[in-house]
């Protein structure tokens, strides 16, 4: 039996995947948006840049693991 979690917020899911769940050597695939710098929901169009979210997630991962100051790999 496989375990999984559902995170409805794309931003929160990206951060969790990179900062909390991915291990050294893992690949995190973000499918479906990539080049778009916005997202559209029921309230309209909003800024949403996955590159910035990934940078934030990598910084958070380094903080969690105590690797502040070390350069991110990959």
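Sequence proposed for the structure above (74 residues):
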């Amino acid at each position: 039996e496989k375990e999984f979690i559902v995170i409805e917020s794309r931003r929160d899911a990206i951060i969790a995947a990179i900062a909390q769940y991915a291990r050294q050597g893992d690949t995190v695939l973000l499918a479906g948006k990539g080049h778009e710098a916005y997202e559209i929901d029921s309230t309209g169009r909003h800024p949403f840049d996955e590159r910035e979210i990934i940078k934030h997630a990598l910084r958070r991962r380094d903080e969690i693991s105590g690797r502040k100051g070390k350069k991110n790999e990959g």
